Amino acid sequence: MASRRFGLLGLVVAIVLVWSLWKPFRGPRRDINFNYGLLRHSDHPRYAIATFLSENTDHARDEDYYFIATRILTYQLLHDPKTKCTHDDIPFLVVVTKDVSQEKRDRLTRDGATVVEVEDVPLHWWIRTGVTRWKDQFTKLRILQLTEFDRVLFIDADTILTRPIDEIFEQECVEPSTTLFRERPDQVLADEAQPPAQYVFCARSDNALAGERNHPFPPNKTDVFSAGFWMAAPSEELYEYLMSVTGHYRRFDPTTMEQSLLNYAFRRDGAMPWKELDYHWSATWPGIQDLEGNVASLHEKLWKTGPGQLRAMWWDLKRAMENYYEKQG
After folding, report:
1. Any idea what the Cα angle at residue 218 is, between residues 212 and 223, rounded to 5°?
2. To 5 degrees, how large is the angle CA 235–CA 31–CA 187?
3. Which residues pair with 115 in a beta bridge?
4. Helix 102-111 vs helix 65-78: crossing angle, to nearest 10
5. What sections of 85-139 are H helices per DSSP?
6. Which spans in 206-283 are helix H?
7. What average pLDDT does the structure give for the chain?
8. What is the DSSP-derived secondary structure letter of residue 58?
């Protein structure tokens, strides 16, 4: 009995000791560099639109709908008169993992996209999900290392457009935000890399939390954004900060992978709160109300789910895309 009491006492002492050693590192950061990661100013900023494609091993080659969706998005951004970019100098980047076949890369290049291979992002053991196709999702964060561009608009491949999207660069996220080191010092943690002193991160509230398919229009704002449509200023300092966060067990919920990480880093009450884009730019869980409301991009796997009218649009776009490239030879 006495040995059991001593054992429990020892356990309590060990817990207190670990807590006392850990707490200072978990607390606020004291060595802030207010010039770290300042964004460059350019009178002629360079813009890009990007999506992400990994090798889909769940389907036969002729049923790889993510690849087909990427081709449709390429067609809409670069060739379709109804939706193509109004500025010819904005490239469309398809960021791919090393596993994406050369055949797919060549096809996307012929379609007009700029294919960019990036390295995988090493993940810590605790970052896991039961969805196999999400295993590469953190790799899309390599887009933040494309510092030759001043702003990059990321659009998930399973998205269709209803009108040109590139005017967003002139209307949103024009000026960088200043990280709230002084205003929210408790949100800058000592056990994470220092965030950059300036950043750009703009996104749309996730309609999954605003009624899903039956969300009102205009939709309600939420504290969580969708990682399927965002604009950012690429920054090595920002990328390194995000990677440092992944080193801390359960600092964010890994269930939705990179979306959870981004929502942690840019939480509304944090040092780098995200900026809400106008609801006319993008809709998750899209419904007919979004189409009728002139929302520019509808994010859904419309080849298999969603309202019938929107699904018919996706299949019509697939046929239009195939016909266009067949005529090009």
Report:
1. 60
2. 70
3. 94
4. 20
5. 102-111
6. 236-245, 258-265
7. 90
8. S
Query: CB under 8 Å to 207, separation ≥6 — which residues?
Result: 215, 219, 226, 283, 284, 285, 286
Tokens 């005529």, located at residue: 327
Q: Can you spell out the DSSP letters for 127-140?
A: ---S-GGGTTGGGG
- The answer to whether 211 touches 233, Cβ cutoff 8 Å, is no
Quote the tokens at residue 94: 């398809």
Q: Which amino acid is at 308?
A: G
Average pLDDT over residues 276-295: 98
| CA separation for the pair 313, 181 (Å, rounded) | 46
Round to the nearest angstrom and report the end-to-end CA distance of the chain. Answer: 85
Q: Distance between CA 325 and CA 327 in Å, rounded?
A: 5
The length of the chain is 329
Angle CA(127)–CA(129)–CA(133) in degrees, nearest 5?
Answer: 115
pTM of the model: 0.90
In whole angstroms, give the CA distance from residue 267 to residue 74: 31
Which residues lie closer than 8 Å to 290 by C-beta, 6 or more apart?
A: 217, 283, 298
- pLDDT tens for 150-201 read 999 999 999 999 999 999 999 999 999 999 999 999 999 999 999 999 999 9
Helix 308-328 vs helix 65-78: crossing angle, to nearest 10? 70
Say if residue 43 is exposed, middle or buried (CB neighbours under 10 Å; 0-12, 13-18, 19+). Answer: exposed
Going by C-beta distance under 8 Å and a sequence separation of 6 or more, which residues neighbour residue 169? 45, 47, 90, 151, 153, 231
